[in-house]
Design goal:
This protein has about 120 residues and is of the alpha/beta class. It contains five helices and five strands, in the order E-H-E-H-E-H-E-H-E-H. It has a five-stranded parallel beta sheet with strand order 1-5-4-2-3. The longest helix has 12 residues. It holds the Pfam family Rhodanese.
Length: about 120
Amino acid sequence: MSETHQVVTDLDPAQARQLMSDGALVVDVREPHEWAAGRIDGAVHHPLSALDPVLLAAQQRPVLAVCRSGGRSSRAAQVLAAQGGPAVYNLAGGMQAWARAGLPMVADGETPEVA
């Protein structure tokens, strides 16, 4: 029996935003203090150290993994893709690229920005 692994595609912020508007689940794998400081509105928090790939593989929609610069989320995306399920993507450049692109973020205690 041969294993099949999905290919993880890196997306730039504009592509990621389009994927989100098409219904993708955004999974932020950063640590709690990073999450609290600023994140994509609507993202779910699953730190890489506690990532449950089986739970996320049960999703019926594409998954976009996000971290600070794209490294941890790339590892998380590979783990998720190995479980099968929906397509998995990585935000290239992470939240740093998202912020540089001027896209909206929300932090604890804030109301989401509208872009």
